[in-house]
Amino acid sequence: MRDVRACQACLGALPHGVRPVVQAHPDARVLLVGQAPGRKVHASGVPFDDASGERLRGWLGMTRDVFYDPHQVAILPMGFCYPGTGHSGDLPPRPECAPLWRERLLAFLPDIRLTVVIGQHAQRHHLPEPGASFTEVVTGWAGYLPGAMPIPHPSPRNNAWLKRHPWFERDAVPALQAAVALALGHDEGVSRRASGR
Ligand code: SF4
User: Fold this and answer.
1) Which of ligand 1's atoms lies nearest the C-alpha of 94?
2) What is the mean pLDDT of the chain?
3) Most CB within 10 Å of its CB: which of 46, 58, 61, 176?
4) Is 187 in the pocket of ligand 1 (CB under 6 A)?
5) Residue 10 beta carbon below 6 angstroms from any ligand 1 atom
């Protein structure tokens, strides 16, 4: 993480400068893979500290305390720094970032039980399905559990997609919450409480 924070590999291509926004600890059991920080997150340095994050925490069934606990949750977007904004929203993650850092960091996360693959950039890297569209892969979410779950980006920009695919929040989100609880071991606490132990 010290090396990541000192990275300047694409300094010249980042209009707002270098600021990797990542969270990780070898104890983490859930890995969240998003796109890249947006303008607000670049300013705060806190991942998903925006409207997208609020919706994502709702989908995951996570409190902020759990979400921001690196001992439970690792957050490694496909690009660690804010790439700037183009004509139709934020630019894609810098292509230098994943080849440089992804495998090196994942090697330090031996206990990941669930990888939540958020949006198309993460999907292309973590769940490559040649010939399948983004929506086709998300539609097949059940086939990736319990180790991975493809989901759309929670950005308000995707409200139209969510409206066209109501099954996602109706069927996939409850399954995602159960998978998160299982990966974090929270379901054990629930069953112990339920059994009075
Ligand atoms: S986006 Fe990734 S590769 Fe580029 S400077 Fe930031 S941390 Fe380094």
Assistant:
1) 1
2) 93
3) 176
4) no
5) yes
